[in-house]
């Protein structure tokens, strides 16, 4: 059961990342975040009411609120990086978010084993190579790499906070609902500030109503992935769940290749692969 739900998580996250990155190529990233997370918040609110999740309210929800503040920054950075592309490089680098729990462990007095040390070295090498050192042609934009690393730190922080925000399934729904509400409020304020500074909230043609189903899919897939990952971690070793769930960049890369026809240079593909291998070593160490 752990393997099934963890692989479902990787599929959902991978497709959500692909959809979010693709939508950001037509619609401002903040708008994609606010609308998709807003739709998810409505659905989660209905689930909380149906399951009586309000009974799980308590001090732990402050962790969910904190995750809601960090989440929009991570999503905005990641979707923007995916829009700059190529997705096959950007998505694997985001799996470095697993380094955040390792850092928390170090702060609490834990010491990494040889496998984790090797994972850190391999991942850093992957980051450098995925940046695209080459003799000719344009490398992957440095901005895309920096945005992806920022997103990775944000995602890792969110995962750590959500873990502390609930101890039961109904509590998880409530925590995710509070997180999404905070995310929508935070993203909405950032969007308003961007508009006041001259930024655009909508594409030239107005609100992309034809993209509404895709926006809904991105938000709901992200929520569903959080749920399946929680189930996977509760029914088996967290290490196994984390490793299998971290395969979501493969889904994103395959979707980018299948739908967009992306092709990676050898050194970029090797770097992205090393980053993914490093992440797996960190997770299993």
Automatic annotation (TrEMBL):
Keywords assigned: Membrane, Transmembrane, Transmembrane helix
InterPro entries assigned: EamA_dom, EmrE-like
Domain of life: Bacteria
Coiled-coil spans in chain: none
This protein's record includes keyword Mitochondrion: no
Transmembrane segments: 28-49, 61-79, 113-132, 144-163, 169-195, 207-232, 238-260, 267-284
UniProt cross-references to Pfam families, sorted A to Z: EamA
GO CC term, one of those recorded: membrane
Domain EamA per the UniProt entry, residue ranges: 3-130, 144-283
UniProt similarity note: Belongs to the EamA transporter family.
PANTHER family reported for this sequence: ACYL-MALONYL CONDENSING ENZYME-RELATED (PTHR22911)
Protein name stated in the entry: DMT family transporter
Source organism: Streptomyces guryensis
